Amino acid sequence: MTLDPVDHAVISQGIIAAAREMGSKLVRSAYSTVVREAADASAALMDCQGRVVAQAEMIPMQLGSMTATWSACAERHPVETLVEGDFYLSNDPYHGGQHIPDVFIFQPVFFEGRVIGFAASVAHHLEMGGAAAGIVANATDLCQEGLRLPPARWNLERDWYGGPLQRLIEANIRVPQLTLGDFNAQFAANGVGAGRLKELAAKYGVATLEASMAELIAYSERRVRAAIAAVPDGTWHGEDFIDDDGVHEEPLAIRAAVTIKGDAIHIDFAGTSDQVARNLNSPLSSTHSAAFTPIKAALTSADIPFNHGMTLPVTLSVPYGSLLNPRPPAPVHARMLACYRVFNAVMKALAQAVPEKVIACGYDTTTALYLSHFDDDRYRVIAEVLGGGYGAGHANDGVSAVGGPLANCTNTPVEVLDLDYDFFRMHEYSLRTDSGGAGRTRGGLGYTRVYEVLKPGAALTMYADRFKLAAQGLFGGHQGTSARCTVERDGRVIDIPPKGGLSLETGDIVTIMTGGGAGYGDPGERDGARISEDLAEGLVSPEAARRDYGWGEAAE
User: Fold this and answer.
1) pLDDT recorded at residue 375
2) How far is CA 187 from CA 125, 138, 471, 509, in A?
3) What strands, in cross-sheet order, belong to the sheet with 484-489?
4) Exposure string over 63-88, b if 16+ CB within 10 A, otherwise e
5) d(Cα 264, Cα 297) in Å, to the nearest integer?
6) Confidence class of residue 84 from pLDDT cuts 50, 70 and 90?
């Protein structure tokens, strides 16, 4: 059919607005701080083929794998077999999912008796069972990481509200009020999206709506292919490393060969380390999401809608049995560490082709810090998803104290922690002076958070990286500062490994210091006015200014 351009403009923007409204509804309806405050969740509208048409601008990692997760469900329960009230649900990392805490829910949108699309949401659930509250750092298989929900069809009225699915989940988790509350927030968000899609179908007709959805996907594909075609053909290589696997000292390599040919990109991850026994492995869908993101960020414009069309010009080769495509049942909870190194390796490769469009490595690490407490026959669990400093770009300093580019999680305010949790108190939340790497443009700063434990029976678990291998600079820029976590107890300072934990005691002081981003370009070329501003704001110390920039030497 011929699509009227005015109708398409209104419909396409209506779909995008509806996806954003879904994201807002999900966050505002959530119970846990990891969703309500950190916004570790995402929402999207899909067509009846499971292709993402529009999404809320939330977590890139979660959205890049939505179609793969949907497909695993639809393969077992075809769309034509669905009835009103049905929904798909899965958190299975080996069938399109990410890791156990990320639960995907896809609700079909029925209009005049048939499915015209899907409202989809995913949230990082604070607690999904497993061998311990929080992270099972020493898990050796997926079963130890929590309740695995394979791709399946359920019904909202029959299976959720007091039904078998709700009872199954409730019986296997430690904080049912928060987790079930977040599930209900997902259903609420999906309901908003479904309602908006039905309104568009009623106003413009199903045929016009479906044509507009298809055109929105095709538009994104055309724009991305045009951006890729503007880059010279060639093959470029990049690599980065995870500190270690938490057992052995050797770093784990992520290697990417990025080939641009015409309007398409192929990325080959040959040479990447083999899968490991700990939870750092990345399922294939996560690897795809991580590889798309630097291409979108470096090569395309911010106004291009991120949907299924953006992924079509990019193909991957990922060795089976590697860190980025493990054999089941390898544990995958901390897959973000490998995924960030995918982001870094691809960005380094692109730096050789388009040096003015990339950024240097940032802290680029999900620092997932869990504090848990068991008292009065109930668990209290808090998940802090901490960021750090971004890498510097060609003309801009890196942003300080923000979530990583794949996670995009927001800050959990100290006031919220004080209101919701009584077994610890926040003592400090501050920028780390000198943590950003020097350069013509400076890397962003990491930050410090300090907690005092107030009650016995608390525990710390975490996964993080860049404790040993700091973010590397580009084109002469200096590396950022590495991260560190300590517990001060009775005058002693205990270093906490980045992939581990500790049982805590009353009076313990837990300090997490996240890393800074790397610099871009020769520090000797940095503008003096910028150095003065950094000194005045306390971002750089006088000692570091003299050491890295030669500041004050001319006057002496």
Assistant:
1) 83
2) 14, 33, 39, 39
3) 424-431, 447-453, 509-513, 484-489, 492-495
4) bbbbbbbbebbbeeeebeebeeebbb
5) 16
6) very high
User: What does the pLDDT look like over 287-298, one tens digit per residue?
Assistant: 999 999 999 999
| Helix, coil or strand: residue 170 | helix
Alpha carbon dihedral 398, 404, 406, 409, in 10-degree steps, equals -130
Residue 556 banded pLDDT, cuts 50, 70, 90: very low
Could you report the per-residue pLDDT of 232-271, keeping only the tens digit for each? Answer: 999 999 999 999 999 999 999 999 999 999 999 999 999 9
| Residue 555 CB partners (closer than 8 Å, separation 6+) | none
Contacts of 205 (CB under 8 A, 6+ apart): none
Instruction: Identify the residue whose tokens are 């994201």.
Output: 23
Name 110's bridge partners: 115
User: Which residues partner with 426 through β-bridges?
Assistant: 451
Q: What is the pLDDT of residue 135?
A: 85
Name the phi and psi angles at 218, rounded to 5. Answer: -65, -35
Q: What is the pTM of this model?
A: 0.95
Cα separations (Å) of 237 from 132, 233, 360? 40, 13, 15
Q: Of 441, 446, 436, 448, nearest to 518 (Cα)?
A: 436
Alpha-carbon separation of residue 393 from 257, 353, 355 (angstroms): 22, 15, 9
3-state helix/strand/coil string of 315-371: EEECCCCECCECCCCCCCCCHHHHHHHHHHHHHHHHHHHCCCCCECCCCCCCEEEEE
Query: Rg of the Cα trace of the chain?
Result: 23
Of 491, 485, 433, the residue nearest 243 (C-alpha):
485
Single-letter amino acid code for the residue at 350: L
What's the CA gap between 111 and 413, in Å, rounded? 42
Q: Which has the minimum average pLDDT: 226-240, 337-351, 397-411?
A: 397-411
Percent of the chain with pLDDT over 90: 93
| Two structure tokens written together for 176 | 């049912």
Among all chains, which residue has been given the structure tokens 């199954």?
Answer: 168
Averaged pLDDT of the chain: 95
